[in-house]
Write a structure and sequence with these properties.
The chain is of the alpha/beta class and about 425 residues long. It is about 20% helix and about 30% strand. The strands form seven sheets. Strands 1, 4, 5, 6, 8, 9, 10, 11 and 12 form a nine-stranded mixed β-sheet that branches. Strands 16-19-22-25-30-29-28 form a seven-stranded mixed β-sheet. Helix 2 links the parallel strand 4 and strand 5. It starts with a strand and ends in a 6-residue tail after the last strand.
């Protein structure tokens, strides 16, 4: 895979994941209490022996730059690298990235300088495990100009996705965005062509794009240069190229989740606690998910009752009850707290116990979860200061709310407490 260069699309402002993207780029959002979203595609690349990786981003990229610089350092005797390419103004491109294709177009001068055969285009906000070498090999075996990774699905899901139609050779011949009724029926394909069994093909007769592509180097360069008005791969570049190029489909039949919304992000994180086997597992010796090494101390659990949960390193938990939750790095939870169906992202640093005690004596709120607090169906971002006897339970079942002045939002009924927020003693949300 030395002749493959990966390009991870960091996305735009991340409005669907706001307020988690208030202070960070979308790929830098925390995952499973200790990872970042960017760790998924980067780790998949490394495990697939693809070591030349660019990440394109333009919003709040400081923490993403810092994470990548600290987490991914290859030997000086290889060409391996993971680098962020932020939007920049040039005489030829005075504007910010206008879409996925435009982001790549603005860096063609750099990408063209690499002596590689193929470009692998990835998304930065999906949760899945994939061997890209098989994907690239399929692309080369079929002599494709462009290969799209697709997932099979049944009729109930299909109408929410952009679907594709293939011929008997697996070549993509038609596209349709979120079809309904007869249009949906017309997009049925024989998925046994791509490797499903006859029974699976009956249950899943549709294929949808994962937003993951392999382009021949020169094909990508030609497409981007000849159509400067086209700014998006999935909606413009790829559909309009189907009649003129060999577009092939590669079937991915594993777990794949688009975690670009608050609800999907919340559900994907809590799914990691499912027993006996979660849909996505970090316990895979042959293909680990990499992240930054932090050298944190072991957890300290004092008289806690914890069920169906995941606890990251460096936490101090005292006489609390935790159920079906993910607890992030350096999280401190005090006595008589109840945490259920929630994601706590932890903290970026430790506040010394002496300083925490001083905060309490001065009537202030230390970092962590104060005594007697109850948290249900919530996301608590990093470094939050939650006071004593706070109730974060969405007692009125509000579905959408924006209370940034009070330190929280509600998205799809999920309370999201902002990074660095302060929730005073006795607050009820």
């Amino acid at each position: 895979m030395k002749s493959v260069l990966a390009i991870i699309l960091g996305g735009g402002a991340g409005t669907r994941l706001y307020p988690l993207t208030k202070f960070r780029a979308k790929p830098a959002v925390s995952l499973a209490g200790k990872y970042r979203l960017i760790d998924i595609p980067v780790s998949n690349c490394i495990n697939s022996d693809i070591h030349k990786i660019y990440v394109l981003t333009q919003f709040n990229s400081a923490s993403l730059n810092r994470h990548i610089a600290r987490a991914y350092q290859f030997s000086q005797f290889t060409e391996g690298f993971v680098e962020v390419l932020a939007a920049q103004q040039t005489p030829e491109s005075p504007n910010w990235f206008q879409g996925t294709a435009d982001a790549v177009r603005q860096y063609l001068w750099l990408l063209d300088s690499w002596n590689v055969e193929d470009f692998l285009i990835l998304s930065g906000d999906h949760l899945y495990r994939m061997d890209y070498s098989l994907f690239v090999q399929r692309h080369r075996d079929t002599k494709a100009d462009i290969t799209l990774s697709v997932v099979p699905m049944g009729p109930k899901q299909a109408s929410s996705f952009g679907l594709m139609k293939i011929d008997d050779a697996g070549r993509i011949i038609d596209f349709y965005e979120k079809p309904q009724g007869d249009a949906l029926g017309n997009m049925r394909v024989d998925t046994t062509i791509l490797g499903l069994t006859a029974e699976q093909a009956r249950e899943q007769p549709f294929i949808a794009s994962m937003g993951i592509y392999v382009f021949k180097k020169q094909v990508l360069i030609d497409l981007l240069r000849k159509s400067p008005e086209q700014t998006d791969f999935g909606k413009e570049i790829i559909p309009t190229s189907a009649p003129h190029y060999n577009l092939q489909a590669y079937l991915f039949d594993g777990y794949w989740e688009d975690i670009g919304t608050i609800e999907a992000f919340y559900e994907a994180n809590l799914a990691l606690t499912v027993q006996p086997q979660p849909p996505f597992s970090f316990y895979h010796e042959d293909a680990p998910i990499y992240t930054r090494s932090r050298y944190l101390p072991p957890n300290k659990l004092l008289d806690c009752h914890i069920t169906q949960s995941s606890i990251a390193e460096g936490c101090i938990l005292k006489n609390c009850r935790i159920h079906h939750s993910v607890i992030g790095l350096r999280q401190r939870i005090n006595a008589d707290c109840v945490v259920e169906d929630s994601l706590l992202m932890g903290a970026d640093f430790y506040e010394p116990l002496s300083e925490s005690s001083q905060q309490l004596t001065r009537g202030k709120v230390p970092i962590g979860i104060g005594e007697g607090t109850v948290i249900r169906r919530a996301i608590i971002d990093k470094n939050a200061r939650i006071g004593i006897n706070v109730q974060i339970v969405n007692q009125n079942n509000v579905q959408e709310a924006e209370r940034e002045d009070l330190g929280f939002y509600i998205r799809s009924g999920i309370v999201v407490v902002l990074k660095n927020a302060l929730i005073p003693d006795g607050t009820v949300i």
